[in-house]
Amino acid sequence: MSGRARVRARGIIPGHGAREVGCAPGDLTVSVSPSNTGISNDDGGRTFTERGKVRRDVIDLSVCTREKLAHVKDCKAGSSGIPLQLVTNLFSLDLPQDWQLYQYHVTYSPDLASRRLRIALLYSHSKLLDKAKAFDGTILFLSEKLDLKVTELTSETQRGETVTITLTLTTQLSSSSPVCIQFFSVIFRKIFKKLKMYQIGRNFYKPSEPVEIPQYKLSLWPGFAVSVSRFESRLLLNADVSYKVLRNETVLEFMTDLCLRTGMSHFTETCQKQLVGLIVLTRYNNKTYRIDDIDWSVKPTHAFQKRDGSEITYMDYYKQQYNITLSDLNQPVLVSLLKRKRKDSSEPQMVHLVPELCFLTGLSSQATSDFHLMKAVAEETRLSPVGRQQQLARLVDDIQRNQVARLELETWGLHFGSQISLTGRVVPSEKILLQDHTCQPATAADWSKDMRTCKILSSQPLSRWLIVCCNRAENLIEGLMSCLRRVGGPMGFNVGYPKIIKVDEKPAAFLRAIQLHVNPDVQLVMCILPSNPKNYYDSIKKYLSSDCPVPSQCVLTRTLTKQGMMMSVATKIAMQMTCKLGGELWAVEIPLKSLMVAGIDICRDALNKDVVVVGFVASINSRITRWFSRCVLQRTAADIADCLKVCLTGALNKWYKHNHDLPSRIIIYRDGVGDGQLKTVLDYEVPQLLSSVTECSSGASSSRLSVVVVRKRCLLRFFTETGHTVQNPPLGTVVDSEATRAEWYDFYLVSQTANRGTVSPTYYNIIYDDNGLKPDHMQRLTFKLCHLYYNWQGLISVPAPCQYAHKLTFLVAQSIHKEPSLELSDNLFYL
Amino acid sequence: MEVAEKNIPCNSVVGGNFEEVCSEKVIRFKPPLYKQRYQFVRDLVDRHEPKKVADLGCGDTKLLKLLKIYPCIQLLVGVDINEEKLHSNGHHLSPYLGEFVKPRDLDLTVTLYHGSVVERDSRLLGFDLITCIELIEHLNSDDLARFPEVVFGYLSPSMIVISTPNAEFNPLFPTVTLRDADHKFEWSRMEFQTWASRVADSYNYCVEFTGVGTPPAGFEHVGYCTQIGVFRKNSGKLAEPFVSQQHDQHVYKAVYTTSYPSLQQEKVLKFVLVGELLIQVERLRLRHQRMLREQEKELDPKPGDTDFSQAPHLLLGEVFTEAEKARIENSPQPFCEGEKFCIPLRRLLAYPKLHRLCVEEDRMRSLIADSVCLSNDGSAIVVDLHNSWDYWPEDN
């Protein structure tokens, strides 16, 4: 653990007292003799603060936001809806009432650099022999207190040196302390190893039971994502099934194939593009590395300097060290920068890896865009609730039946037990409001059938527009037009006849035609693109989103040739075009008048990883059917927004223009918050939003602000139990107890369906709340907002403004790479 | 191997007081002595390719960890009296993750037993090599007396390696009487060799003496720092596996055991075979595509297309020996049937990476049948010549 990390780790231990020195020293002299060989070592080379860092999700837990929110201090649970018994993937971890963990700081005199030696000496000391202990070389945890605050032990190394080990009690930890939580994680890491699982990243996998997908050269290793932490009132283990994707080829084989595909002239460039960022597993240890670069000038026959200063070629090194003979002496080396820095320098450590000895893990972006491949992977990894439950049951069984694992838990006084059940609620379903009709959808998952003949709320007639297509696609236009008219009529969307421009099948030709024919009078440009649309799409969107802001609609030729699908395709296109022209499709009942909701999402630009793309989408009417969208590019190291003040101010101005008043309430949903960023969002982003609110109000009573952090990805799962089988919980299921956190005002909401897999709930954490809405209202409002995403006639997993913001940032990060024009901010131009 | 002499100032704390220990010449071996001892064993394994190897007094299993990478070893056993050490180090002997992707050729089982080297356990019978590295000096006189009859007499492996400190070297160390507080004795070369020769004689072994840790210049007369005896059983009486069945004696407690995936396991063989096969198929398919494109280009040459005239500055992929080349050329050629590309199984089996798996064509056919598409007569693999994910950047 680096010095800085240690300070950080200590920082979160509340007030450990000054170290007391002066207890009877050196009354114990014991010699140590590791029986014959070198030096003993510990359980695997990790420190308690994983790679010298406090785990980031643990940092988040120290941000106690709930205590500042008076209205939820006592109770944050809602009440409406029908109670429902749910099974979770949480497991109890019980401890004796007065359980404490004793943390000691350990020093050696003379100081020993080798962690292994430090551990070996301490572990074999008779004083500690029968005690439950965990030691990372510096910090020692014991479950029983030593007699003295400072204990000195004397040991002798193999070389005959006498070493004094000083153990100083630094803290007594209760089971709820963050350090203790990390400690439990270490214990479970040990247990999983005993179960013959391997740790990769933070998860544990069983490579001995792989699922093979030979046609794509993939293996899937089954395993678990696990975290131990303190939920509402008790310590729980959260486990979810996870699969590690491994490619059954070495990086060298991958390169050889790529070389055959691309030819030499493009090879190095493509290789770099495809490999950098991927994670590889090396053949000769269990470590994973991120490929940061490829060094084409270094070959296996080149020499490097070993730690002891001697030089050796890579080739000889692998032969000597691992008995591996390299077959290709012309391969380059992969470069990886290690996260851990060397003690004495601030430069990140760099390692060279030989492609032939590296296996690719995970899926490349190219693979993820291959529909067939993804389908094959999904078929293996998408587990039904029943399948998931079986895997979890097996894990519990394995832990409980493994003697060594059980012993490990017992020595620390931990009791690993039952799967937690809790009571959730299913909130009432929502009605969908259309122009002259209110429908109660048969299922909230999809109401496209329910609104087929209904008029949408409002739309602009489309009369002045262009279709750009290549000659081949011309014959499709007639069919498309007639379908658009047939679906547009009942919807109330009038589609006039477009001006058709035929061009060559080249991206440049499309762009030239658009530049030539688009004038301020044009309402919308439709482009019918041939296959491989990326080149076309990017240049068209770039031009029409920022250079010459006009809404655009791109359609693939392939989509228009799907037999029997034309009506549903046309419906979808008609709805998107309506939105792009500023129309409104449907609404839900919002009891609060004068409420603005907004969504924020953040991602990295695809071309330039230094650029952060911030999307901000806010409602500008009290019906929550019209939106103000803004996207800002900023250069920052962290995924934290700098520009929120200007975004919110823009939205408030827009609101004022439409409503001649300011909204009395503002609720902002912030998506894209990574582990460990909660504090920064609270300290840095919330103030920006607040200052915008204060400035805009200028004396009048200002709007009240709430900020909600949204997380789509969480380990938690809920099932309903019916008879002997488990199922996904119904839409609208809310959980606000037991699986939540005492420190936070938070809840889970199931607002999406999973046809075959297990549904994953969305997690909401209200970190700032001036509005003081009842938890019940907050939950139901959130649920309502999940109905308002116009690109999908059904519920979605997050509130609509978040999804809009996501869609906007995605377009900018992937295709446009610059800020879209503000002229389009009133339209959902990015759908 | 070299000896580096360094002036190392060392402070040691005794009884809570700092006591200045004057700078002294300390002998440091490079590589460290323990590594030299391990290297000695590794060289031996390289030379004799034993199948079954046991390390008595394996401690933290470091030597076993080094030995598990040898392809010849199929059974690797460690024995120690410190159970906790075996527990905490066991998982270091589990296969690397990569070994599930590129498995070994032969099975390997690694087992750690808790027990004493002077107890008889029939599971250690019939070994090719037993190593006792820095072990005997930890035995008290009773145990030392029983040691030969158990290890030489009962276990009776083909080869035994025993290493122990050479007491004659000790005066070169600053203060040491014994190198470790747990050492019951340290022998001179004479003492060791006398003991070893007597043991060898009584159990029909021959012994050779050597060592690691060369003394510094001017002190050659003291001999190696670690003395080693290599015992080999005199021919005739080979290990008899039936003994283990007759007198099953399981006194040791198995603390940890693990089996490696290997090509001897049908499931693993199938996985590797299909994997290598698909890589080869893909390569041949791409090569064929490229050839077709080259032919097209020749008919319609574009200026500035330098792709192939340019000498490749990289050589990627396998390089075949003449014999391999001949084998490949003598096998049936891949061919096209419309948009389908067919590669005869016999062709595929000619490539070194598949050839080395030593699978007959029929066996191969049955192993791959449910993973690939075969031609009607089952003699070739059939794939689409063009794939949706093929891309040729030259086109842009």
Automatic annotation (TrEMBL), chain A:
Broad class of the protein's primary localization: cytoplasm
Domain PAZ: 250-362
GO MF: RNA binding
Keywords: Cytoplasm, Developmental protein, Differentiation, Meiosis, RNA-binding, RNA-mediated gene silencing, Spermatogenesis, Translation regulation
Entry superkingdom: Eukaryota
Subcellular location: Cytoplasm
SMART domains linked: PAZ, Piwi
Domain Piwi: 524-817
GO cellular component: cytoplasm
GO terms classed as biological process: cell differentiation; meiotic cell cycle; regulation of translation; regulatory ncRNA-mediated gene silencing; spermatogenesis
Family from the record: Belongs to the argonaute family. Piwi subfamily.
Protein name as catalogued: Piwi-like protein 4 isoform X4
Automatic annotation (TrEMBL), chain B:
GO cellular component annotations of the record: cytoplasm; nucleus
Alphabetical UniProt keywords: Magnesium, Metal-binding, Methyltransferase, RNA-binding, RNA-mediated gene silencing, S-adenosyl-L-methionine, Transferase
GO MF term set: metal ion binding; RNA binding; small RNA 2'-O-methyltransferase activity
InterPro entries: Hen1, SAM-dependent_MTases_sf
Biological process, per Gene Ontology: piRNA processing; RNA methylation; siRNA processing
One Pfam family it belongs to: Methyltransf_23
Record EC number: 2.1.1.386
Cofactor requirement: Mg(2+)
Catalysed reaction equations from the record: small RNA 3'-end nucleotide + S-adenosyl-L-methionine = small RNA 3'-end 2'-O-methylnucleotide + S-adenosyl-L-homocysteine + H(+)
Record's function text: Methyltransferase that adds a 2'-O-methyl group at the 3'-end of piRNAs, a class of 24 to 30 nucleotide RNAs that are generated by a Dicer-independent mechanism and are primarily derived from transposons and other repeated sequence elements. This probably protects the 3'-end of piRNAs from uridylation activity and subsequent degradation. Stabilization of piRNAs is essential for gametogenesis.
Similarity-based family: Belongs to the methyltransferase superfamily. HEN1 family.
Record's protein name: Small RNA 2'-O-methyltransferase
Gene this chain is encoded by: LOC100752202
